[in-house]
Amino acid sequence: MLVQDPQRIKQIWNQKLIPVIYRRGAGHPLLLRLPYHQTNYIWLRNGKRNKPEWNADKQYWQIPKAWFNDVISRILKRWGKVYIIQPYREQEKCAPACWNATGHECNCSCMGARHGSENPAGKWFVVGETFATKWGDSELACRLLTNEKVS
To answer: Which structural domain, as residue segments, surrounds residue 130?
Structure first.
């Protein structure tokens, strides 16, 4: 399940029952919200050299990006579920063959929106006459991971 609605993502971030990890992108540490337990700091640190930082005002942990996979695995073992909020960019696929077409039949992902346009808007990376790609603007998306062993 992929959620892209900003209001729903905000609700997910603010709920307190399921852990939420927020990947903000390159150069930024992870933000993490866990259901309250007095041992969260010890559990989160897990004997590592680096220490998680608690932001008391905003009620989240800040942890190194390098911890991502380990923390996700441990959250799934402990809580069975985790939301991941991260930047998302949709990829569009089309082709110069479509843009230069003269007929009405279109078989690419634009569903005819750029068919015969000769010069579509946006910055396309043209791989060949039959394939070009373009990335949309960066947005936030959220997905829920569950431990399949949890009933």
So the answer is: 91-135
